[in-house]
Design brief:
Elements (H helix, E strand, L loop, with lengths): L1 H14 L18 H9 L10 E6 L3 E2 L8 E2 L2 E6 L3
Length: 84
């Protein structure tokens, strides 16, 4: 599965090379809910580049395959990309 993940991720990153990187502006968030707009402003995201690809590395992930088995720690990477 690791090879499938790497292949799929490489294809996604390559496909997004042509994506125009935009800046997060007040205009671009005008349709969002007010609490989300406030969060983006307070955290300093306004006038920053909008990411196209992102990897999330989970520090704690656990998996239980069945009720008869114990929980097992697993290594988890979640990859997101812009769906062109």
């Amino acid at each position: 599965m690791k090879n499938v993940f790497r292949k799929d991720k490489s294809e996604l990153v390559a496909r997004n090379q042509v994506h125009v990187i935009e800046t997060l502006t007040e205009e671009s968030i005008k349709e969002l809910a007010e609490p989300l707009k406030k969060y983006l402003r307070v955290c300093g995201y306004i006038n920053t580049l909008i990411p196209v690809n992102a990897d999330v590395y989970w520090s704690e992930s656990w998996l239980k395959m069945s009720q008869d088995q114990d929980w097992r720690k697993i290594h988890t990477i979640h990859s997101n990309g812009h769906p062109n």
